[in-house]
Write a structure and sequence with these properties.
- By secondary structure, the chain is of the alpha+beta class.
- It has one domain.
- Helix content is about 60%, strand content about 15%.
- It has 3 helices and 3 strands; from the N terminus they run E-E-E-H-H-H.
- The chain has a 3-stranded antiparallel β-sheet with strand order 1-2-3, with no helix packed on it.
- Strand 1 and strand 2 form a beta hairpin.
- The chain is elongated.
């Protein structure tokens, strides 16, 4: 594990920044609350919240890849 003066922790292949600076609009804040139940302020200040959001985003991304692969398989099996 790597820790520098800028408070970064390196674990395997990615770096986690303890403080995230995010500029966001009211609509982005509203969408964050609807999707995750908390806003950007909490997202930017709590590592556990950021990890929760990123884990869920990764899971949703993997599901979308599976859906695309299944549709692609079905499409190509009928042609």
């Amino acid at each position: 594990m790597y820790k520098s003066k800028t408070h970064k922790i390196r674990r395997d292949w990615f770096i986690i920044h303890h403080q995230v600076q995010v500029k966001y609009t009211g609509n982005m804040e509203k969408a964050m609350f609807q999707a995750y139940g908390f806003g950007y302020e909490e997202y930017t200040t709590k590592l556990s919240r950021r990890l929760e959001v990123e884990k869920r985003r990764e899971e949703e991304y993997q599901k979308s890849l599976n859906i695309v692969a299944e549709l692609d398989r079905k499409f190509h099996s009928h042609t």
